[in-house]
Amino acid sequence: MTGLTPSSNENPNEFSIAESMGFNRSFRKLLKTYKIKSVQNQLKELVLQQLLELKTDSYPLNSRYEPLPGKVKLPEGTNFCKIEIRFGKGASGQIRLMYLVNEIDYIITPVYIYSHKQFAKRPSDQELRELLDENLSD
Asked: Are 69 and 132 within 8 A, CB to CB?
């Protein structure tokens, strides 16, 4: 368990955060790359804070639209984005959080999280396609 749970949408102008098993798996993998428990806890707090901020600003300045893997079509009103989170120095300290924004139902779905050390660019198109299909079929 990552300690990150979906949130309710109490304010109609806020997005809610949806549960995503693929995101939880990738977050556990990312945490394992950090051996020190206090560093893992800092990362958990940082990611939780970022997710909470996405509730009120789904497109912050440090985010961008992410190209879709081939053969993936998003429903109308849904965008695929990536946000860069600084967690350390240099390229190895960059954490990337990929997420879906459903502007019709006001839902943010975290899809994948990884470090520059794990993937210099991003996970494979096949893996992303599977995760997006998993999240869009719910």
From this structure: yes
CATH number of this structure's domain 16-136, picked from the four choices 3.30.2310, 1.50.10, 3.10.350, 1.10.287: 3.30.2310
Longest Cα pair distance anywhere in the chain, in angstroms?
Answer: 42
Q: Would you say 119 and 76 are in contact if contact means Cβ atoms under 8 Å apart?
A: no
Report how far apart, in Å, the C-alpha atoms of 88 and of each of 49, 50, 116, 119 are: 16, 16, 11, 16
Quote the crossing angle between the two packed helices 125-136 and 21-32, to the nearest 10°. 140
Which DSSP string corresponds to 36-54?
SHHHHHHHHHHHHHHHHHH
- Tens-digit pLDDT profile for residues 11-52: 567 999 999 999 999 999 999 988 889 989 999 999 999 999
Matching residue, tokens 């990150």 = 4
Burial class of residue 61 (count of CB atoms within 10 Å of its CB; 0-12, 13-18, 19+): exposed
**What pTM was estimated for this model as a whole?**
0.86
